[in-house]
Specification:
InterPro entries: P-loop_NTPase, Rad50/SbcC_AAA. The protein is α/β, with parallel strands linked by helices and about 675 residues long. It has helices at about 40-55, 70-75, 125-135, 140, 160-165, 170-195, 200-245, 250-305, 315-325, 340-345, 355-410, 415-465, 470-510, 540-560, 590-600, 615-620, and strands at about 1-10, 15-20, 30-35, 80-85, 95-100, 105-115, 120, 145, 515-520, 525-530, 535, 580, 605-610, 625-635, 650, 655, 660, 665-675.
């Protein structure tokens, strides 16, 4: 998908009809919209977001007031947003026009048109087409309120993994596998019915019950995770609002720091707990076998003493004596003599090279088990000490957070009290949702595990029964196909994560001033920045913010096949423009230019809404040569200027004023600046 143009009609701050044409060719693919805080950058982002999905970004305020206030005074009751875009993945690169209209009370219409030779043809069920091209669950990856970058969690929660899998195109394969599972369930049901076996029928009934329950549970889990994400973003916004108040700023800053520290400690706790579980699993056999190996070695020694195991001489020595007809003591040993007969008898006790090697292997295994059984308890004890230390530090953080919260609540300022009360309410809601998510995830996990056990029992029981060969062959084919696709999907997923890590670290190596690297956990997709010693670097640091921008750009680039290493996708991933509101305000100035350059390189189309403060020399230099369209979001106020400042912006030696006063009406105006 490439955006071609956007037209707003009386939407939020944009009075009347206003239009932006986007840069979209392969070289000049960046569109920049300059505007001050409050001018309409977030409104512009949400115009795109709402037109495509019918929803808004979590930080978008007064979501029910969509019609421009000035237009409403004049009697206008409806607003609309219209987007023209090209789907380059379709045959010939089809163009589409999407139009969404609404009143302040409710949405009134949504239409999708296919453009053919300049004519618009209305598409039935256009919503399905848009969701196919850009699924609603993925839009937050491509249309992003960058001021909320701090709330982007890379710690590997289930929702994060789910959304990333969708972006990389794995969702369709997951659906195919679900369909194949349904086919197998149907065939197993036929096997049970054909055999009329009571055990098989009972197993099938239990599996059918899980099949009925599981989709609803998964749907409920996704809804809970989405709600949890919204509450988390709302908490972040409330915290940001608290931080802006002079009386609360230092306390809120401390609390934010403690909460970030607590999250890092909780992540570490999960890591060490997993290590302990893995180590205990590896240690169990060694600890159990240790006593047995001691007895085994004693048994070996007893058998050697009794002569039941080969003595400490080899069969080759005996053969050499007989061949040379000379004993090692110098006495002759003639063939057929009494001496030769006695020496021949020794062969039954002599060791062979192969047998010696087997005995040596057994002894080596015994030594290895003994060494492991002595090392594991020490390693496990060290990990448990780390877990205990982390538990103590988490408890300290919780006490500090409680104390800071009490101090904030004690400040007698109405706005602080209001925000703090709001925050406490959101915190309770978040904790409740978190518990519900955990409970539902556990139920799903138990049902999936039980289904797997029932399936194994069903397969074992059905093999003993007489059913038609046709049915057996059909079930076998479905199972083989499902297993093949799962293996192929896992291989592609591992390769995608490997390339993602390579590309991500390539970016970090170029732009970070410190020797940090990113690691991606293949199990939960968690992304962590580590220093040269392998220690975790907090996501709230300047480098952590760079990691988040680099990660978003790399994911978009991988989906668009713009990475150096390519993947032959089983299904096409999502390809869309990257639209960012206030992309550099959360970054340290030293990183703004490098992040801007990386975003431009990694994307097929980039739209930036940026303030004059963030548009410095480094950013301008980084985007030189790739900016194809540039607009000003001019803020006009009907009231007098008074002591309010006017913000200037210098572009290529020309100064533009981004706000003005004494205008005919209060509004935001989109004005193109020639590149």
């Amino acid at each position: 998908m490439r955006l071609l143009s956007l037209v707003t009609t009386d939407f939020r701050g944009f009075y009347g009809v206003q239009q932006v044409n986007f840069a979209y060719d392969d070289v000049k693919r960046v569109t920049v919209l300059h505007g001050e805080n409050g001018a309409g950058k977030t409104n512009f982002l949400n115009a795109i977001h709402w037109c495509i999905t019918g929803k808004f970004t979590p930080r978008f305020q007064d979501q029910k007031l969509l019609v421009n206030k000035e237009a409403a005074k004049e009697g206008q009751r409806e607003c609309s947003v219209e987007i023209l875009f090209k789907d380059e993945e379709s045959s010939g690169g089809k163009e589409y026009r999407v139009r969404r209209c609404a009143t302040n009370e409710k949405q009134t219409s949504f239409e999708v048109f296919e453009i053919e030779r300049g004519n618009s043809k209305l598409i039935d069920r256009g919503e399905s087409l848009i969701q196919l091209l850009l699924p609603p669950g993925l839009i937050s990856w491509f249309f992003f309120d960058a001021e909320a970058i701090g709330s982007l969690e890379l710690s590997g929660n289930p929702e994060f993994k789910r959304d990333l899998r969708k972006t990389l195109g794995f969702e369709l394969i997951d659906r195919l596998l679900l369909d194949l599972d349904s086919v197998q369930a149907k065939l197993r049901r036929e096997v049970a019915n054909q055999s009329n076996d009571k055990q098989l029928l009972a197993l099938q009934a239990d599996m059918d019950n899980i099949d009925r329950v599981l989709p609803g549970q998964k749907s409920s889990l996704e809804a809970l995770q989405e709600k949890t994400k919204e509450v988390s973003i709302a908490m972040a916004q409330t915290n940001a609002n608290l931080s802006k108040l002079p009386q609360a700023e230092p306390l809120q800053r401390q609390r934010d720091s403690e909460e970030a520290k607590k999250r890092r400690l909780e992540d570490d706790h999960k890591v060490y707990t997993a290590k302990a579980a893995t180590l205990i699993g590896r240690a169990a056999p060694a600890l159990v076998l240790n006593d047995l190996t001691t007895k085994l070695e004693g048994r070996l020694e007893d058998q050697e003493v009794k002569g039941r195991l080969p003595a400490p001489y080899s069969d080759q020595l005996v053969k050499d004596i007989l061949e040379r007809e000379l004993c090692i003591c110098g006495r002759p040993v003639k063939e057929g003599s009494h001496e030769a007969h006695k020496i021949n008898e020794l062969l039954q006790f002599a060791s062979t090279g192969a047998l010696n090697q087997r005995i040596s292997d057994v002894r080596y295994l015994i030594r290895d088990i003994e060494r492991n059984s002595s090392e594991f308890p020490v390693q496990i004890a060290e990990i448990r000490q780390q877990i205990t230390r982390i538990d103590r530090e988490i408890a300290k953080c919780e006490d500090e957070i409680k104390d800071l919260t009490k101090q904030l609540q004690g400040i007698d300022v109405a706005e602080i009290q209001k925000l703090e009360k709001e925050r406490q309410q959101l915190q309770r809601e978040f904790e409740s949702l978190h518990q519900q998510v955990g409970g539902m995830a556990h139920q799903i996990e138990q049902n999936v595990k039980r289904y797997k056990d029932l399936k194994a029992q069903h397969e074992a029981a059905s093999r003993k029964l007489k059913v038609s060969e046709r049915l057996k062959n059909q079930l076998s084919k479905a199972e083989r196909l499902s297993n093949y696709i799962r293996r192929s999907l896992q291989e592609q997923e591992n390769r995608a994560l490997h390339i993602l890590a390579l590309e991500l670290n390539s970016v970090l190596e170029k732009y970070l001033t410190k020797h940090y690297k990113a690691k991606i956990n293949a199990a939960n997709y968690a992304v962590q920045l580590v220093d040269a010693d392998g220690k975790n670097v907090g996501h709230s640091t300047g480098e952590g913010q760079v990691l988040k921008f680099a990660f978003i750009a790399t994911v978009v680039a991988l989906a668009a096949k713009k990475t150096q290493e390519k993947i032959q996708w089983m299904t096409e991933p999502t390809i869309a423009p990257l639209v960012l509101d206030a992309p550099f305000s959360a970054l340290d100035p030293e990183y703004q230019g490098s992040v801007a350059k990386n975003l431009a390189l990694q994307t097929t189309q980039l739209v930036l809404m940026i303030s004059s403060a963030a548009w410095g020399e480094k950013v301008a230099a980084a985007l030189e040569g790739v900016v194809g369209k540039r607009y000003l979001i001019l803020s006009q106020e009907a009231g007098p200027q008074g002591s309010k400042p006017v913000k200037p912006l210098n572009i290529n030696g020309t100064e533009y004023l981004l706000n003005s006063y004494g205008a005919e009406r209060t509004q935001s105006i989109l004005k193109e600046v020639k590149v």
